[in-house]
Fold these 2 entries.
Entry 1:
Amino acid sequence: MAATLPATTHIRLERDGPVLRLWLDRPEMRNALSADMVREIQATFDAIRDDANVRVVVIRGAGGTFCAGGDIKNMSTAGAAPPAAGMADELKAGNRRYGAMLLTIDEARQAVIAVVEGAAMGGGIGFASVADITLALDSAQFAMTEVRLGIVPAAISPFVVRRIGLTAARRFAVSGAKLSGIEARDVGFVHEVASDVAALETLLTAEINQILKCAPDAVAETKRLMLRAATNAPMTELLDRAADSFVTAVRGPEGREGTTAFVEKRKPTWVEKI
């Protein structure tokens, strides 16, 4: 069933056939993350959770900046005093919602591409860490800036550690040091860099078209297997799950179509191009 996308104010959604482009759309605030933005992103991924027709999600920032991190003004107000006795701690709940949103993106059936121009600071690095593919301008800047503000990179830390490893994550988390797009590629935040916007668009189109050669259900199950492999699950359990997935795929409609298309020397029916 085709997804009905939510109405949004703080993000902009553009559907282009099998591709959904999600723009962080608070350029006047350098796309700083607000509670409303987090809710809208969560609602969007909830809407497409089971939609195999949405095959790629591209996350970008409007106005030439990816994401400046959390909304510090709102954070300062919310952190001025603890909640009254018996009242919910909205500051804690908001951070937890952001973490849940990142997990939803991480586990999405779609291939997710983050495209970074300008700054990816603080919470903005979370998107780069959960995307399947992250592209950036070589002039982009990445930093875990929280400690420079006296706070901690709470929700993003598990995703950053898994993305670039504990040693690199600790270095950047405790120093708040900035990385260029090239340096972010070298440590593993980013997969490919481009020297200008035109080259970045070319990279993005090539990545999308490569994904659109692949069967959507196979992509979704492959992501699930790889995320499971990144846990501490026993190898025997991982291999049992892998064998089950393999058999299901080979005997399923995509496996039958793909293998038949190979024998008949034609493209499978799912192949698309933008």
Entry 2:
Amino acid sequence: MQKKYSQGRALIAISKATLLAIIKNPGSIFFSLVFPLVFVWIFGSFGNGGSSKFKVAIGKGSDTTNQLYGIIAAFPLLDLVHYTDTTAERIDLEKGRLAAVLGINASLDENKQLKYNVKVTSTNASVQEVAQLIPILENIAARLNPHPSNMVSIEKNIYSVREYKQIDFVLPGQIGFSILFSTLFGIAFTFYNLREQLVLKRFYASPVNKLNILLGIGFSRLFFQLLNVIVLIVVGKFFLGFTLSHGVLTFLEMIFMSILMLFVLMGVGLIFSSIVKSDSTIPLLINLFALPQMLLSGTFFSISVFPSWMQALCKLLPLTHFNLAMRKISFEGLGLIDCWQNLGVIGLWGVAIYCMVYKIFKWE
């Protein structure tokens, strides 16, 4: 009696063989693990030092018609921002994105002399910036005309919050960076070489289910890359103080986001492997797809540094939403449901990409 062919064994065998091939390639380990770890270590060690320009907001109800406000608004070392959403203002303040919120009020004393009161509200996430901001405000007060020494009173209100460290921004970006390049290079070159060597053609002619062939090779890449993600998170958590708001639950949600992004990028790699005529073209296509995302998706710095029109372009990229969701989950403690917009954009990219894979993927 003929023994029934085991699709499960075939899937496991393909996954195992492909995983061994990945591990034996030193380039895979360097670019997907060592390179991002170096970036994490360097950027994560920078700390939260002060900068040459301070981002400050004007508090709700402040008097913006007086002379003091005019000088503050024109002062070159201050970057004045206005919030319509007080919740967004509070979040930025507690994360250290905002040095302080200034409450400015003018009144007349008993001698009918004009007095200004400046209330500086900040958090321990920006304590170094506030230490430099106070002398700047005192310098601004000296520019008032007339400017008696008691014309301006400055009051500090600094409250404690969970510290937002540099590593809390850097690590999610480095996970995205690692996933982006290692997955694209790994999948594109793997499938191109398998097709050129007629291995895919032989697989196609075998009794192995076609989906199992793709999943087997894909699962090995997924497993290898997830190991790298786990190492990055563990190093960040225990050596650099990376924040996991809800511990294990946050860790699992970050792993889920990584799996979702991996599947999307594996689809891109399949497309590249199918449309190129030679392997020398693959790096060009990968760089055309990946470099804009690396620079415009908030991997190394916030997209808020760009003009508003460019920020709109940044928000079309899947890696932007991956980075945003990972930071919301890790530091802010939000759940996957709270990140539904980011998940939706990544999901739409996935649907579009795999529709293209279905149309153009080649077995030979």
